[in-house]
Amino acid sequence: MLKKCQQEEKLSWWQLSFIGIGCIIGTGFFLGSSIAIEKAGPAVLLVYFTAGAGTYIVFRSLANLTAHHPEKGSFRTYASQAFGSWAGFSNGWVYWSSEMLIMGSQLTALSIFAQFWFPGLPLWSFAAIFACLGLFVIKLGVRQVEKMENMFGLIKVSAILMFIILACLALFGVIGPGEASRQGETPLQPFFSEGGLGIWAALLYAFYAFGGIEVMGLMANELKEPKEAPKSGTLMLILLTLFYVCAFYFVLKLTEWRNISTDESPFLTALKNDSLPWFPHVFNGILIIAGFSTMVASLYAVTTMLMTLSEEGDAPRIFAQKKEGKVSKPAFALTVIVVILSILLAVVLPENIFEYITTAAGLMLLYNWIFILFSYRRLMGRSTREVVVVYVGILLIGLAVSGTLLDNMTRIGFFVSLCFIFVIAVAAFFKQRKTPASGA
Questions:
Q1: Rounded Cα distance, 264 and 115, in Å
Q2: What is the reported pTM?
Q3: How far is CA 168 from CA 91, 184, 341, in A?
Q4: Under a CB-based contact definition with an 8 Å cutoff, are residues 370 and 57 in contact?
Q5: Model confidence over 379-400: pLDDT tens digits?
Q6: How large is the greatest C-alpha to C-alpha distance in the chain, in angstroms?
Q7: d(CA 260, CA 429)
Q8: Beta-carbon count within 10 A of 422 CB
Q9: Cα–Cα distance measured from residue 209 to residue 288, given in angstroms and rounded to the nearest whole number
C-alpha cells in the first residue's frame, strides 16, 4: 500500500494530507456505503462522523510511532517490539488477509458497477475480466502501478466533488425538478428511524470507507518533518469526513434512503431521479475507473506484503523478491490463485457475496487497527490522557466489530474473519515453538 502513493521527493505535511485522501477513497465509499445507509438510515451521517473520530485515533497512534521511531516494517515491527515476534508474524498475516479480502470486495464492487450497463450478465464474468486486467498491470511492475495510482487518485476526489456539485444544482432547480418538489419526498426525519441497533450495525462499513489510513502512518517517513505527521492526518481526516458526510447528505436529499441497495452505488440511485439521463452513465464510468484503481492497489498490496513476509522469515522463502521493481513469480502465482477463488465465490454466492466479503474485509482491517493501538499503548502511551484516547479508539472499533453480530448476513462475515484469525493464530503458535528449537 505504501509504494502506490510514494514520491521520490520529501513531502510537506499538507501534501501528505491530500495524497492520503486519494489513497483512501475507494469502493468502500462508493458502494460499501450502501450497506451503512441500509442499516442506519439517515443516521448514517452520525455513523461516519463517529468512524472518522475512531480512525483519527488509529492514525494518530501510528503516526506518532513512526515519527519518533521510524521503522521499515512499520506496524509489523512495532507489534514485534511491543509483544514479541509472534505479534509481528500475526500482524503481517492479518494485514495480508485483510488486503486479500478487500481485493475480493473491490472486484465484486467493480462487477456490480459493470452490471449497471449489462444487467443480464453474471457477476463472475465481469470479475474475471477486471481480474485479468489488474493482474496484467501488477505484472508490469512497481513503476506502472505507481503511475496509475497517482493519476487515478485525482479521479476519485473529482467524482465526489462532481456528485456534490450536481446534487446542489438539482436541489436548487438548475437541473431536475428542484428542492420544492422534494420537501416531503426525502426528509432527514426521523433521524434515528432505524434506532441505535441500526447505527451500531452500520459502524463497521463506515470504518471500512476509511480503510487505508495505515498508509498515512507508513508514509510519515516521506515527510520533510516527520514530527508533523499527526498534523497531516488531522487535516486529511477532517476533509475526508466532510466529503463523506456532505455526499451522503445529498444522497439522502435526492432519493428516499429505502431505495438504496447494494445492487448499485447509492450515488447512481440518487442521480437517476433527475432529468440527466446521461450523467449516471458518466458517473458509473468514473466509479469503475476509481474502483479499478483501488482493486489494483489491493492486488499489489497482497503481492508485496507476501514478498515482505518472505524476506523477513514469516513466509516461505520461495515468495521473496528476486528482481528489483518486479514481483516474484511465486508470489504473483499465489495472488492469481486468490483472485480465482474470489471469482469462484462470485459464482457460488452471487446474491450476497459483496456483503459477506465486505464484512470480513472490514473486520480483518479493524483487527489490524487494534494491533496498532495496543502497540502504541505498550511502546508510547504512558500518560493518563494517552491511555484514555487509546481505549476510546479500541471501544469504538469493538463496537464496530460486535455490531456485525446483530444481523444474519453480517454474522457470516464475522465468523469468516474468525476462521482467518484462528488459522493465523495456529500458524503463529507453531512458528513460535519452532523458532527457539531451530536456534538451539
A1: 8
A2: 0.82
A3: 44, 18, 42
A4: no
A5: 887 788 889 999 999 999 999 9
A6: 79
A7: 44
A8: 10
A9: 17
